[in-house]
Amino acid sequence: MSKNTLLLFAWLLLILAACNQFDELQELDSISYEAEYALPLADTRISLRDILKNFEENATISISPEGLITFNYRGDVIAQTSDDIFESINKSLPPLIPIISPYMALPFSSPDGLEIDLLNLKGGSLVYYFENRKPHAINVRVTFPQVTKNGLPLTYQHNMPAYSGSGNPPVATNLLLPTALAGYQIAAQNDSIYVRYEAIAPNGMQDTLSNFLIRLQDLSFSYAEGYFGNFLYKGSRDTIRVDFFDNWIRGDVYFEEPRITLNVENAFGIPTRSVVKILDVITVRGQILPLESPYVTSGIDFPYPAMNEVGQVKTGTFSFTKQNSNIDIILGAGPVAIDYDVDAITNPDSDNRIRGFISESSYYKVNLEVELPLFGKAAGFIVMDTLDINFGRYTDVDDVEFKLVTDNQVPLDVAIQAYFIDNQGNKIDSLLDAPRRLVKAAPVNAQGNATGETRQITFADFKGDRFARLREHAQQIVLVSEFSTINNGTTSVRVLSSQGVRIRLGAKLGVRRKRE
Fold first, then answer.
1. From the centroid of its chain, how far is CA 317?
2. Residue that wins the pLDDT comparison between 190 and 134
């Protein structure tokens, strides 16, 4: 039972302090009399839907078309953008690449299994440097056949003079004005980018260059295709607080259909799978109970767009239920928090035949949602709350007898005891001689749906010195409520938003005054 529902029943007891009818007693003349006044204090019906309108707890509320109330608690698990994966491509490139032959493949893969087929560049630069140490001039043409812009390959042309044999040799470089690579496309061949150079001597023969170096730096990408290897992307450990049991003292609740759901949005065209490191329930008793399921062990595959679905976002959900996990047991143990740490790994099956894509707008995010539908059973579920009161202004009242009539459509029994406390925390009195059922559960059918309403009538009286003590000393009321579903908590029931309680509260006041 939520805290707001608990406060509903607290209101039954405390409405006395808010009723203006008592103010009339302040206007009585100071004469000698003995009288009794019967005052109707309240006659109202409150539905669970009315209570939920002002729900301000840690959860959100959803109501099914049938009216079943569900408490939802949500937390983010992991989020990833293309920047992180593009960064892994950058890191796979060596900072300085020596060119040791006229036709050579630049490495475009990594030990993690990264294999690039296609890249569209939106930033970065290329720097080259080479020397002529030959005693004759050479005509140099450098080409990157797979690096193209508007269909034309990236090409450099230099006429280099002969080397004199001493001092610094002739150099060709664009170090002071690196080539901007924005707008270029790289179409890899056999996981490599090839560079070809021709160094033609005056006699027309092919020659070679010395100290030929290439540097690719600060690359940024708008699109990539290929096999992106096994990269583990870490989530962050976090906790979802569950305030359903905030005021719990003892007792058991069993939810028939609880769920922990992973919700996925994915615009990466890459096979990706969850890696659950921690998914534990922390209980009101201080236990740490792990969620057990084959899907925790094997992981959950994210939906992802195919190569012909660039720009689309695939969504999916996976729910841990009592059919595939121990969720009903661990969430029935009084959860106060869900502790989770979930990572994700790309290409979990290491099948490099599956080629994928990433665009600059690609992302994925996963959140975790705990759902507690109010369909279940409770036995001896006790909660406690403390509220301020003040009877000090009712100086003309000597005796009070309350009469509470409840007509209940909710399939819950509520037994209540209340203790009046002074400003030192000492108990002055209790509302009832023993905890008593003030609200009786509505009858239900075999499906746990309420089929009617049940009336309960309760009296409580405070006479003479007993009420005087409350009037003089009571500062707070400690409300202890015990909730059970019908049949002493052995029957599962459905709590619907349309269900409610009609409350009629009256008081019979005794006033005994002497002539002054």
1. 13
2. 134
Is the distance from CB of 196 to CB of 212 less than 8 angstroms? no
Q: Count of alpha carbons within 13 Å of 212, Cβ hemisphere only?
A: 19
Query: pTM score, two decimals?
Result: 0.69
Residue 25 has pLDDT above 50, yes or no: no
Sign of CA dihedral 24, 25, 26, 28: positive
How distant is the alpha carbon of residue 102 from its chain centre? 56
56-68: b (≥16 Cβ within 10 Å) or e:
ebebebeeeeeeb
Q: Catalogue the E-assigned strands of 178-332.
A: 179-180, 185-187, 192-200, 206-207, 210-228, 232-233, 238-241, 248-255, 259-266, 272-283, 288-290, 314-320
Kindly report which listed range (125-134, 296-305, 483-492) carries the lowest average pLDDT score.
483-492
Q: Are 419 and 427 in contact (CB under 8 A)?
A: yes
Nearest-angstrom CA–CA distance, 374 and 255: 7
Nearest partner of 326 among 295, 289, 292, judged by Cα: 292
Rounded Cα distance, 67 and 57, in Å: 20
Mean pLDDT, all residues of the chain? 80
- Please say if the pLDDT value at position 30 is more than 50: no
